[in-house]
Amino acid sequence: xxxxxxxxxxxxxxxxxxxxxxxxxxxxxxxxxxxxxxxxxxxxxxxxxxxxxxxxxxxxxxxxxxxxxxxxxxxxxxxxxxxxxxxxxxxxxxxxxxxxxxxxxxxxxxxxxxxxxxxxxxxxxxxxxxxxxxxxxxxxxxxxxxxxxxxxxxxxxxxxxxxxxxxxxxxxxxxxxxxxxxxxxxxxxxxxxxxxxxxxxxxxxxxxxxxxxxxxxxxxxxxxxxxxxxxxxxxxxxxxxxxxxxxxxxxxxxxxxxxxxxxxxxxxxxxxxxxxxxxxxxxxxxxxxxxxxxxxxxxxxxxxxxxxxxxxxxxxxxxxxxxxxxxxxxxxxxxxxxx
Length: 339
Known about the structure:
Layout: E1 4-9, H1 16-31, E2 40-46, E3 51-53, E4 59-61, E5 63-64, E6 72-77, H2 83-87, H3 90-101, E7 103-108, H4 112-118, E8 126-127, H5 134-140, E9 145-146, E10 152-155, E11 158-161, H6 166-179, H7 181-190, H8 206-209, H9 216-227, H10 235-241, H11 246-257, H12 261-279, H13 284-290, H14 296-307, H15 311-318
Parallel strand pairs: 1-2, 1-6, 2-5, 6-7, 7-11, 8-9
Antiparallel strand pairs: 3-4, 10-11
Helix pairs in contact: 1-6, 6-7, 10-11, 12-15
């Protein structure tokens, strides 16, 4: 098999990691093949050729857009702090639209989804982008179904990834699709990466999404929730602390915070549980108790519903501390890490 042609569209102010992450994966995938075939040939094209400066100051040598003519295996569109200017560049957007027609697959990293949407390529499709911009993507392009949680979304031959470093996860998924799981694992090991941060995995922005409300009674209630997550936290008690009726408290809380009180409490409990799973040796049962879940089974159900992973799976993938002799709690139907 000949090398797969990857064409990366760059523009002034593009984000360097949106580009560097995926192309390092592609380059390593080619170098790790024993037969020196089936690798990736990466090209950079730009309306601002020949030298394009990224937002971080790195300079990329690129060819003019017309150098990207002909069949393309993978068209890669990154995001960047200068995305607004890129969206206004009609030559660039038009070229992306035409290039997509002759590409086997079209992928975006982070804000690159905006350029695909501006070109009309995501109409009627599912897509994602950085958690901070997903609402804007949905508002600006109502014909695109914006997924809130996944780190990448694969819809036909269009693949969009979430913020910045998720381009690496996306590139590994593409290598796996092209060359199989064993080769993707070899690449991930060499680059010291997780082979797969589940494509349905949350973008890990729960705490950041849950901004404190402007109204003092609701803000006070939020702060009290965060300080007492291990407690039952009944809504009537929160309403009483806010000196409001239960009905009015629930209505105002949802308006100010964007989610009902009960759902907010669950989100904060899951956020704390994730932190404890990542950074402590506590058992899952202990974590469930510290986060206020009525039982371990309730914790497993809530965690799985939110992240599409069990607590044990999450810990195996994301724990930054790997203590010796760690024994994870088992639940019916799941094998423990030591079995």
